[in-house]
TrEMBL record:
Keywords: ATP-binding, Membrane, Nucleotide-binding, Protein transport, Translocase, Translocation, Transport. It comes from Aegilops tauschii subsp. strangulata. One of its GO terms (biological process) is intracellular protein transport. One of its GO terms (molecular function) is ATP binding. It comes from the Eukaryota. InterPro entries: P-loop_NTPase (IPR027417), SecA (IPR000185), SecA_motor_DEAD (IPR014018), SecA_SF2_C (IPR044722). Pfam families: P-loop_SecA. The keyword ATP-binding applies. This is SecA family profile domain-containing protein. GO terms for cellular component: chloroplast envelope. Residues 1-199 form the SecA family profile domain.
Amino acid sequence: MLAKEIVEDNVLPFLSHDTPDVETEGESTSHKGLSKIKLGPSSLALLAKAAIMAKYVHKSESNEWSFQKAKSAVMESIEMSNTIGLEKLQERVAEVTEMYPLCDAIALAYATVLKDCEIHCFDEGAEVKTLGGLHVIGTSLHESRRIDNQLRGRAGRQGDPGSTRFMVSLQDEMFRKFNLDTEWAVRLISRITDGEDIAIESNAVVKQ
């Protein structure tokens, strides 16, 4: 998914003028999420080559490509990279032909970018494990303990390190649903803590 979005960001704008410009706080969504991924020189060069070929194809076509047509072409190229080996793709891109090998260039760029993404994910995963793994925080309790355990199960999957913690307000809907009077506790805690947001721990909740 990461490699696919990187290729699309670099190729689609040159294939179609209809490419939607989706932004989040002034920055494209994919760039916000993928800015940490460092691409190698080979990936950057192949992406640039694919972009140049896309620009050439777009200009040489008598009819402008729609966004859907451009995206379909990119998807076909990505699927091609899964069936054709890297060496074969390199040979096809290097061949001198009358038509620019757009699909081959995109497929080769995707295969190279994918390797960089795999390295990034592996390194990031190792860093997360070193820091203790995924920490899941539950902010409310469900009627069923099974549902709470499913949330807890998001951390430490398949032997990976992880931890969970539930932090529940005394004004949580669960307490009201079972007619538990917690108003007195809220008032008491407010007096003790002088209105400050200080957590009051209970093993019954923390170890839910």
